[in-house]
Write a structure and sequence with these properties.
2 helices
Length: 54
């Protein structure tokens, strides 16, 4: 069980409020992007290559 996924269960089990790990910090305040695409692996792969190629 990850403390970021169900903090209320963690608090109930261990009696403390654990700090949020660095990786999910800020996810609730960031900008969310929504894209529509064809549901095929090739379309997904093309999107990743086009948008994230270094």
């Amino acid at each position: 069980m990850h403390s970021a996924k169900s903090p209320e269960k963690i608090r109930a089990l261990i009696g403390i409020d654990p700090p949020l790990p660095d990786s999910p910090r800020g996810l609730d305040t960031g900008v969310e992007y929504d894209r529509k695409m064809v549901t095929s692996y090739q379309a997904f792969k093309d999107f990743l290559v086009r948008e994230y190629r270094a």
